[in-house]
TrEMBL record:
Keywords: RNA-binding
Official protein name in the record: YhbY family RNA-binding protein
Domain CRM: 2-98
Key word Isomerase present: no
């Protein structure tokens, strides 16, 4: 995944602020099924937000890093128990955010 400029990251954080967390990591931790679900969602949305619940043993920074590496995504930000990941969609019809990002370079 290519590096994003400060302006692009700011744009992604602005978009992420309006999004709701789609997934939650609980006491089972990060499973293969969880990663597959995030992979599917990020393909359609390009940006995904998830929470770490209090009963989980995972740390938000480590969890975000682990998931980002597995699905080849960029960590936009981590705040509290919430993380936001971005990856451009491989399908043209879902490339709304990445098209706007390309204009910001």
């Amino acid at each position: 995944m290519e590096d994003l400029s400060k302006q692009q990251m700011k744009f992604l954080r602005k978009i992420a602020q309006k999004e709701k967390a789609l997934f939650q990591v609980g006491k089972l931790g990060i499973t293969q099924v969880f990663i597959e679900q995030i992979e599917s969602a990020i393909e359609k949305r390009e940006i995904v937000k998830f929470n770490i619940l209090q009963n989980s043993d995972e740390e938000i920074d480590q969890a975000a890093q682990q998931i980002a590496e597995k699905i080849n995504a960029v960590i936009v930000q981590t705040i509290g128990n919430t993380a936001v990941l971005y990856r451009p969609s491989s399908k043209t019809k879902y490339q709304r955010i990445s098209a706007e990002l390309a204009e910001l370079k």
